[in-house]
What does this fold into?
Amino acid sequence: MALSPEIIEKINNSFKAQSMMRTMGAELSQLDTGLVTLTSAIPESCKQQHGFGHAALTFGLGDSAAGYAALSVMPVEAEVLTSEMKINLLAPAAGDRIEARGRVVKPGRRLVIVQSDVFAITDDQEVHIAIMTGTMVPIMPK
Amino acid sequence: MALSPEIIEKINNSFKAQSMMRTMGAELSQLDTGLVTLTSAIPESCKQQHGFGHAALTFGLGDSAAGYAALSVMPVEAEVLTSEMKINLLAPAAGDRIEARGRVVKPGRRLVIVQSDVFAITDDQEVHIAIMTGTMVPIMPK
Amino acid sequence: MALSPEIIEKINNSFKAQSMMRTMGAELSQLDTGLVTLTSAIPESCKQQHGFGHAALTFGLGDSAAGYAALSVMPVEAEVLTSEMKINLLAPAAGDRIEARGRVVKPGRRLVIVQSDVFAITDDQEVHIAIMTGTMVPIMPK
Amino acid sequence: MALSPEIIEKINNSFKAQSMMRTMGAELSQLDTGLVTLTSAIPESCKQQHGFGHAALTFGLGDSAAGYAALSVMPVEAEVLTSEMKINLLAPAAGDRIEARGRVVKPGRRLVIVQSDVFAITDDQEVHIAIMTGTMVPIMPK
It folds into this structure.
């Protein structure tokens, strides 16, 4: 289902307002209803001690992809907060870029359950580096 | 129990080698056996869309504090990897600085179970902003 | 803070209405504001293949202890549902009985964040067998 | 890939040795490499206070399905332990039966990452009631 221009604008504005996303070199590469992908080329400033992408980079991209997936199924006036998120790390964040694909598992008025899968991509090869499951909370204006 | 100079040096070197920690403005403010605290003044570059610290900042500090707590109880030649981590966010990361206190719940040769509590601090007032529980895996040289 | 007689009665009635708790041999052994303990002698019917208590027994006691801890801080007309729960298992459920101590970390109108610690007890010796963190959702009558 | 007769026998024997699974009315309804399904008709003895299946029933089935999925990819002499498991509950366990489908996300010598999806089924209709992600640890004989 195509997203409305208002929702697309809201998500783009929110994304641009997050300095952490800029610092992480993140781009919004897919934006569909309940399905959002973020991509990053793994900046030098976001690495761990062995030169791989830091777990906080993987987490930040996966959390934001899932959060925007949740926002895409909420009313246009809603904001969203992460309430909880679990990440299982499967492999090092090593590659040309990492891609976090967030999706809505169960929408709801009070809670939205989400998942993200994160991949490290080199040329055409994908390695699954993390799975994440969490809870997003819609915040409505008073 | 006091840490050996070798372990202290190993943790300091590892910490300095993580560009993500520099980007997050993190400092190692406590380093004891099974107990490590990281502090950050919440840099402008690590915020979410409402001006609070990003969840990835809270996660990154809590994860690293817990990882170094685990490293502090391992043999000096060991490295450590996060296998999984869950975060429950309790309040916005708003304040003069945030402080992540990681500790070892159960040491082990194969797995080390850890927890972190993260606080936002303004003057002398602390707000508990996140609780984290995870699994660290010791990596021994071959 | 002492619980009101209405809340105590509500929790006792709810507890008795859970056939799973009877099957698990569970007893409500402590009931305070934001703090509830359940105890079980590990029935023969709730074991895993090596004769220890099953992870579902540990989970069930810890989840219910945390749920009743949450219920103890809600209005008397509220019900409670577990939204999510994570368990880290630290040791086998072996001993004379297991004890699950649930507590409220952060109360709230929409979400209540809880933790449980579960212990296996033999004579006077306690072994910490599980840590749990989760989210409870208050359900108000319409 | 077809499972060897030895692995099938090992899993069947382990399953029968778990009194908790009998108490939960569980049956091993699918057993493939990295993919195991357990089914239960929701016994009267495993309910919560509103007459739905208890969260411990959902957890127990999902955890065991995932554990046997992990066991199916390990050497025949290995045992398996759950190290950690997170469950997000999506809907009440109401229906004719519940079905837990466990699968291996990432096999490994030290850790096996698993997921389970749990469904409540009435006639031909499925409702997704829980998603679970966890870590299984292979235990080798000494």
